[in-house]
Amino acid sequence: MFLIDEKGLYISYQNTMNLAHPRPTKITARELEVLRCLSQGMSANEIGEKLGTSHRTVDAHKQNLFMKMGVSNSAGLVQKANDLNLLGKKKFKI
Questions:
Q1: Which of 25, 27, 30, 78 sits a CA distance of 20 to 30 A from 17?
Q2: Chain segment 38-62, per-residue pLDDT in tens
């Protein structure tokens, strides 16, 4: 289950399977932007150019998403986002 508020997106720890954090985990608006770009097959460099930041910053957002969503790679992020319907009704291919 997830909740969206005006400050960002929250995912319950039960869905992330990250039991180290007993409270809901917040996914920031920027992390969600990175996630959407990843779902479109963009590289860190391409995402950085689109968002006006460096690829290292994009990599940091990806690492945060890995931890928050309990996955270890970009394909896992997109799959988890699809499972939780975070990217909308359309299912994105990995």
A1: 30
A2: 999 999 999 999 999 999 999 999 9
